[in-house]
Amino acid sequence: MALPAWPDDPEILPLSSAPVPEYGTGSLADLLPTLVAGQGVPGFEQRIAELTPADRNCVFLIDGLGWEQIKAHPDEAPYLHSLLGTSRGGTGRPMTAGFPATTATSLASVGTGLAPGEHGLPGYTARNPDSGELMNQLRWKPWTDPHVWQPYPTVFQLADQDGVHTAQVSSPDFEHTPLTKIALSGGTFRGRLSGEERMDLAAAQLAAGDRSLVYTYYSEVDGKGHRFGVDSDAWRGQLMYVDRLAQRLAEQLPPRAALYITADHGMIDIPFDEQSRIDFDEDWELRAGVALLGGEGRARHVYAVPGAASDVLTCWREVLGEQFWVASRDEAIEAGWFGPGIDERVYGRIGDVVAAAHDDVVITASQREPHESLMVGNHGSMTPVEQLVPLLEVRS
């Protein structure tokens, strides 16, 4: 079935113009399956055709550092910038994060090798169809059984079962979180506080097996971007620091190793004015017929009261359709926003209406989401600045 073109209003963004992520060939969900396929782990195949197998693979994920940010900051990130030509197997091309381009969704895609429609973390917040409550999938509130919410094994677990030395090196705070359990567990978790300690330990873990799969993570680029914006000195300082961390890790690679530096999403600064920040809590048209507002400012899940889904879709499209791609649940699924397939248990977690930002704008909720509404840097949608992530490569 063809997607509707909305001929009655040529200003409405057609859904066919949304740049759908490269699921199956070049998204974050395709990285680990490609790496372990090259290590001979059964049940996996090479999805990212440009990558060459290595016995020892390390993935360094820098939260919030998209492709466009590295390109725009050669002075602050000279080492990472020098690696741009190595991205995606030497093609000099980025990967895509997946939709929405947000941490909980992306980390689940990385760790499980599945698109959001399968692993079932389709946004920052999403409705639990069983309880009717809005669940924060990053903070895991309110509580629900992690392995019911995401029942698939991780790539790390399957690689570990096949004898690959598997380790995650991250902040100790993340060791026992539900998101780690269902997305990044398998093998051993090594908690280290400082970035330098993580890089050194990741290199040591990489050398600890004939076949190794090591994941390490740094979050504060994203943190400073949310608080101060990617045009701030605080953010640039974090970029300079993480650039040195990446070089530190690269210089310690053991033989037969490949290091892949990537991210979970990019980020865009949104001005604090009425045109750029649309407050759902102050807009009676957008609130009409809405039971729950999920997702985040640039990738909204809208859950309608029973019987109102069609009216909510019409209203949101009329009010926002020049700035957002606005789709019904079934249209977003058919367009492939959440991947090639949707598990039955995931279907009701997706909004009756899904709104993805095209312009430099966010839908805030000043009363329901006071903290998030004050963020300078935002992400979530399918625009290049949010969606494109690097896959920089260093080999020993």
Please tell me about this protein's structure.
The chain is of the alpha/beta class. Helix content is 32%, strand content 19%. The protein is built from 18 helices and 18 strands. It has helices spanning 31-38, 67-72, 78-82, 87-90, 103-112, 116-119, 146-149, 155-161, 178-183, 195-206, 220-228, 233-250, 284-287, 309-320, 329-334, 344-347, 370-373, 384-387; strands spanning 56-62, 95-96, 125-127, 134-136, 165-170, 188-191, 212-218, 257-262, 268-269, 277-279, 290-296, 299-304, 324-328, 353-357, 362-364, 377-378, 388-389, 392-395. The strands form six sheets. Strands 6-5-7-1-8-18 form a six-stranded mixed beta sheet, sandwiched between helices. A four-stranded antiparallel beta sheet has the order 11-12-14-13. β11 and β12 form a beta hairpin. α11 (220-228) packs antiparallel against α12. The longest helix has 18 residues, at 233-250. The N and C termini lie far apart (49 Å). Mean pLDDT is 96; it is low at 1-7.
Sequence of strands across the biggest β-sheet: 6-5-7-1-8-18
- Helix proportion range: 25-40%
Using the alpha-carbon principal axes, give the shape.
globular
Number of strands: 18
Describe the largest sheet: 6 strands, mixed
The unreliable regions are 1-7
- State the oligomer: single chain
Number of continuous helical runs: 18
The whole-angstrom Rg is 20 Å
Structural class by sheet pairing and helices: alpha/beta
Mean pLDDT: 96
Per DSSP, what share of the residues sits in E-state strands of 2 or more residues?
15-25%
The first-to-last residue Cα distance is: 49 Å
